[in-house]
User: Fold this.
Amino acid sequence: MSFGPPPAGFGPATPHPPTPPASPASTPPPSAPPLPVWTAPTSIEQALFEAKSREDWPAYFDTLADSRLYFEIRRDGADAEPSRTIPVFGHDPRVTGGRIWAVYTEGMLPVPDPHRVLDWQSLGWFARVWEPGDPPVIVVNPGSPCEAFLPSAPPHSAAWAQHKAKGPLNRARVRTLRFGGPLEGRVAQGLACGALLVVRYGFPWNAMAYHGNGYPGERTSLREWWGVSSREEWQEQQSALLDPDGANPVWEFALGLRRAIARDFGGHVDTAYWRDTIARVLRARAGGETVITPDGVTTTPAAPAAETEARIKGIQHLVGRITRYEARFRADGILDENRFVSSVDAWNFGRASGMARWGLGSRYCSLQEAESAVIEAGRASARSYKSWQDFAAGYILGRCLHFDDEEFGEWYTDMVDLHRLLMSDPGSPWLTVPFK
Assistant:
């Protein structure tokens, strides 16, 4: 073993050299050797490398405790029983007996492979589940400059298992892959469209090779939240989210009508006039319309008056919801003064960026398919919006109209916090990646 803390089984394989005698007072002490040059993939690996270089093992363990630790699991076991974790152990000739439990931090993860899947846990979990038949050593990021060997058996494991995270590991943080993930270009722009989804849980925003919450977790989330349990269902959902006409038609009708009024009247739209225009347009359409289709000229039948009036009332109520959300958006810095939300297309396109990565993490698609979907999400967003600020407002309004029901609870406040983070953190893609 080449690295580890003293003395409880963590030390180097060879003894430390003896301390040299003190230099005479007239001789200046030798300068410390420079640290080896290594560009760490993320701030996690950088912190591990620096702590290891100065042999600050408490700091090393604190960093591990505040990070997701991924490890390979058996895919057939996870498919048969998602709640059961069956680790796949590795081999390292540097360890007596050769058996190890390899774990990886987020910047060191392999490209997703159909036959190799991973899960993650916190640092303390490994000590709690260890059994006598398990490998005696956990190797962190094998073969890398921030590698370390942790004895997994008690009592030695107590030295690292006591370290705790700073907070929930799935908490909001802006994290960036310094290499191994795009920092510019079409893929980066498409990934940034999903930033509200991935930054919320502290995943690297530009991780195209996505593992997320691990193979079992990603599959469970898609099944419970989206009803997706197969490749075909994933493809159907991905296509629906990328459909330019896929947003809620009632929401888009109301917002589209306001856009048309704004063009005609120089930008400002009086809410009462907006409501009146909705009534006029819907009553005119209720009398039947003559439209030209590929099959020729078609006349739609007239709608019953009661049905039309109910629809008018419903959309006018929606106008009230939209304007009240926008007022709150301005107060919370999501919208600038005198600005309004042009469209809620972002609600679909942002989730399309997320769906591409979730599909990859669940092995319902290939890396190439996920990347193509991410690029299309970016292109579609650029057609509908002018800036990250506009995109964010559209996404948050769509989310609130879908979930929040004007309660201004967590469905809303979570977005306010994330918006502020993404608009202020120096590493945020909304500050580093051009929208168009």
In short: The radius of gyration is 28 Å. The chain has a mean pLDDT of 90. Residues 222 and 228 are 5 Å apart (CA to CA).
